[in-house]
Amino acid sequence: MSGVLDECDVVEVSGLFVEALKAITRHAADPDAGGYTPSDLPLVSLNQAEIDQLEQLWRNDK
What we know:
Helices cover 60% and strands 0% of the residues. With 62 residues, it is mainly α. 0% of the residues are buried.
């Protein structure tokens, strides 16, 4: 399908997409951006509260 967006629109959308990716990257690099969830740790049986507690203990030991 051609003609949906003109060149100016494509440049604008691609620039916005790149900025969004950069923002996600900055957020993910922040140590306080989040942590593990139970689905990240399939080999252990921990709920979110237990994971949060372990992460807090680990941060305090640094």
